[in-house]
């Protein structure tokens, strides 16, 4: 049973605000319980932005119990009498804010925290949440599973779109990006892998090993990951010096070898096409086959379910520029992730003896998607900038019609301006967030072309574009 200690003060605070009190004693008001995402209105929270997450996790694959301490450093964007975090399942054992015990209350996936003292606008404050239990996967509107996914002998955490609330409390919307330190303690003999750089690995006694991972660059919380299992680890560097860390389930090692061998070259190719690789580290996590129904571009180390092929590695690495460094402002901007990563596949193919992007575009236009064996579903079912609902953000139009939008721009402006646009977009929005409208305005400014017809027909237009 959860403590419901918040109820009375929250009601009082609301009444005070509702009666128009302007008294000096009232500094704060409740932060909003969502950021009004058009597709996932409850995702994220208002009133603050997180600067840093320090997650200290302990996991035992034998009983599936997770224990966590999340230290969340955030900046208040308004005076706050209370604020929310998103957390699904698990038991909250205690919350403190600025070192003082805080009241808290839970309703659905909202964890409401009422600090002992109101927070001032602009104040940087630290919240510590102790929590634990056996995490359950989050089932999203399209029926796919995210959050904490167990394997026979380990687990992996993936968060797109709303799964991260299944394993740590946070401001779970891509518009709030933060740096991370993730420390994981597991039984000796297991590996624990997360985003970024491995700072330390040490035996801490009691048959346990602790892994400390550090991600200095901003990261959207859906891109945070932890993988626990018995992995074969390979490290190296790309030619330009990016550290590479591959953790591969032993049963997938042989099957992954060819694609992962090309990872450094793919990172370099991306650097030449899209501008410098945005992060200090790269790599991969290959889980046993069928752990998930998809791969995910988790920051610096994409997660694969079974051995990936070269194009899948390319796709997930392309997301490091498009999606991870430049992140969508809302979930309806998902084509900025998937259209770009898909078009990167088309570009890689045309650079490596495959069919040209033009040929692929023409084949798709003519209804022949056999040039792309992944292209399940009708690419024309809806315009990519207007996904039909939260259950459609990973559908074919977001990927393929999204890629076709980029090819239409290339046709209009020519190769030189087009590639300058891709590089400029990645550079000017590096580590930030951008919306579809930001992109269309940027594309016209950068290329000096009026692209209204492309937007009207390809990006926003209902029906099947003819050319
Ligand atoms: N963003 C992932 C990719 O394109 C796909 C994730 C699909 N997730 C889902 N819940 N349907 O690589
Ligand atoms: Zn993708």
TrEMBL record:
Q: Which UniProt keywords apply?
A: Hydrolase, Metal-binding, Metalloprotease, Protease, Signal, Zinc
Q: Residue limits of the Peptidase M1 membrane alanine aminopeptidase domain?
A: 310-458
UniProt enzyme class: hydrolase
Q: Where is the Aminopeptidase N-like N-terminal domain?
A: 51-223
Q: Which reaction does it catalyse?
A: Release of an N-terminal amino acid, Xaa-|-Yaa- from a peptide, amide or arylamide. Xaa is preferably Ala, but may be most amino acids including Pro (slow action). When a terminal hydrophobic residue is followed by a prolyl residue, the two may be released as an intact Xaa-Pro dipeptide
- List all membrane-crossing ranges: none
| PROSITE patterns per record | PROKAR_LIPOPROTEIN
Question: Residue span of the signal peptide, if any?
Answer: 1-24
The EC number(s) this enzyme carries: 3.4.11.2
> Which Gene3D superfamilies does this chain map to?
Neutral Protease Domain 2, tricorn interacting facor f3 domain
The cofactor required is:
Zn(2+)
PANTHER family hit by this protein:
AMINOPEPTIDASE N (PTHR11533:SF297), PROTEASE M1 ZINC METALLOPROTEASE (PTHR11533)
Which family does the UniProt entry place this protein in?
Belongs to the peptidase M1 family.
- Protein's recorded name: Aminopeptidase N
Q: What is the lineage of its organism?
A: Bacteria, Bacillati, Actinomycetota, Actinomycetes, Kitasatosporales
């Amino acid at each position: 049973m959860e403590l419901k200690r918040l109820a009375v003060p929250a009601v009082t605070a609301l009444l005070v605000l509702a009666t128009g009190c302007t008294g000096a004693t009232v500094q704060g008001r409740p932060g909003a319980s969502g950021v009004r995402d058009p597709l996932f209105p409850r995702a994220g929270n208002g009133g603050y932005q997180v600067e840093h997450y320090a997650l200290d996790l302990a996991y035992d694959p034998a009983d599936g119990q997770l224990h966590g301490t999340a230290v969340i450093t955030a900046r208040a964007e308004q005076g706050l009498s209370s604020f929310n975090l998103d957390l699904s399942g698990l038991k909250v054992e205690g919350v403190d804010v600025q070192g003082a015990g805080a009241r808290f209350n839970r309703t659905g996936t909202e964890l409401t925290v009422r600090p002992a003292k109101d927070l001032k606008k602009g104040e940087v404050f630290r919240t510590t949440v102790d929590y634990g239990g056996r995490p359950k996967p989050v089932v999203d509107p399209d029926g796919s599973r995210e959050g904490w996914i167990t394997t026979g002998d380990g687990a992996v955490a993936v968060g797109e779109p709303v799964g991260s609330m299944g394993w740590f409390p946070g401001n779970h919307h891509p518009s709030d990006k933060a740096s991370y330190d993730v420390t994981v303690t597991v039984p000796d003999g297991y590996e624990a892998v997360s985003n970024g750089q491995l700072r330390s690995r040490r035996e801490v006694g009691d048959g346990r090993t602790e892994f400390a991972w550090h991600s200095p660059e901003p990261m959207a919380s859906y891109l945070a990951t932890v993988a626990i299992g018995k992995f074969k680890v390979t490290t190296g560097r790309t030619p330009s010096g990016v550290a590479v860390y591959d953790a591969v389930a032993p049963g997938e090692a042989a099957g992954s070898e060819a694609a992962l061998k090309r990872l450094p070259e793919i990172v370099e190719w991306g650097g030449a096409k899209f501008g410098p690789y945005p992060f200090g580290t790269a790599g991969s996590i290959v889980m046993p086959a069928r752990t998930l129904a998809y791969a995910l571009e988790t920051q610096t180390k994409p997660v694969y379910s079974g051995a990936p092929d070269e194009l899948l590695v390319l796709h997930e690495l392309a997301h490091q520029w498009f999606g991870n460094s430049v992140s969508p402002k809302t979930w309806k901007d998902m084509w900025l992730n998937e259209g770009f990563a898909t078009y990167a596949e088309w570009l890689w193919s045309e650079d490596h003896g495959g069919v040209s992007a033009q040929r692929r575009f023409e084949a798709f236009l003519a209804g022949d998607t056999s040039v792309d064996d992944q292209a399940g579903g009708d690419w024309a079912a809806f315009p990519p900038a207007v996904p039909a609902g939260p259950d459609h953000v990973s559908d074919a139009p977001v990927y393929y019609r999204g890629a076709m939008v980029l090819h239409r721009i290339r046709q209009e402006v020519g190769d030189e301006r087009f590639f300058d646009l891709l590089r400029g977009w990645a550079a000017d929005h590096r580590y930030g967030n951008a919306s579809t409208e930001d992109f269309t305005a940027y594309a016209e400014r950068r290329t000096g072309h009026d692209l209204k017809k492309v937007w009207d027909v390809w990006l926003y237009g209902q029906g099947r574009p003819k050319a």
